[in-house]
Design brief:
The complex is a heterodimer of chains A (111) and B (113). Chain A is mostly beta strands and 111 residues long. Chain A has no helices and eleven strands. With 113 residues, chain B is mostly beta strands. The chains are: A mainly beta (111), B mainly beta (113).
Chain lengths: 111, 113
């Protein structure tokens, strides 16, 4: 199993819907997580971080961490076409000084 | 403005011609890292540096060199580029350990013919 795994998508949702992006992780990462958004040809930018079990909300974004099931998710409410991007999940590697990134999920919001 | 800068942004070169991609950050971060991003493979770490004169290999270091002579700069050197190094490269920095939020440069798209 890879340290951090994501479904590559694409995930297509209509404008105004809730987009749900998921990430599973192995025991080889520490349990703090970062969600990055990456527009095509651009660099990743941090949109959310979550360190404890449960939900964390920031505007239209909610990150959810479930340590028992080893998954973390990102919900985007009222999805907009401008949310169309690749979303990367990342976590600190347990054995060294680096973040491990998932391959990313492509999100397409259709107007 | 707090930022990570990279140069050049685009580069076309030929096999075997040495090149350097520069990276600089103005946030006084101790940790800096280089990644390459390829379709379907995500971000893979090439090298990282915990501080001045301290560098270490990441997951895919073959064919690359780095140096960290100053805190703000972390250049990536390809001494003899090959076509399999055609990729999108990102430099990133973080405050201390690399295990916290990382801030990315704008990327360098490299094509090796």
């Amino acid at each position: 199993q890879k340290e951090v795994e994501q479904n590559s998508g694409p995930l297509s949702v209509p404008e105004g819907a809730i987009a749900s992006l998921n990430c599973t992780y192995s025991d080889r990462v520490s349990q703090s997580f970062f969600w990055y958004r990456q527009y095509s040809g651009k660099s990743p930018e941090l949109i959310m971080s979550i360190y404890s079990n449960g939900d964390k909300e920031d505007g239209r974004f909610t990150a959810q961490l479930n340590k028992a099931s080893q998954y973390v998710s990102l919900l985007i409410r009222d999805s907009q076409p401008s949310d169309s991007a690749t979303y990367l999940c990342a976590a600190p590697w347990e054995y060294g000084n680096k973040l491990v990134f998932g391959a990313g999920t492509i999100l397409r919001v259709k107007s | 403005e707090a930022q990570v800068t990279q140069n050049p942004r685009y580069l076309i070169t030929v096999t075997g011609k040495k090149l350097t991609v520069t990276c600089s950050q103005n946030m006084n971060h101790e940790y800096m890292s280089w990644y390459r991003q390829d379709p379907g493979l995500g971000l893979r770490q090439i090298y990282y540096s915990m501080n001045v004169e301290v560098t270490d290999k990441g997951d895919v270091p073959e064919g690359y060199k780095v140096s960290r002579k100053e805190k703000r700069n972390f250049p990536l050197i390809l001494e003899s580029p090959s076509p399999n190094q055609t990729s999108l490269y990102f430099c990133a920095s973080s405050l201390t350990t690399g295990l916290e939020t990382q801030y990315f440069g704008p990327g360098t798209r490299l094509l090796v013919l």
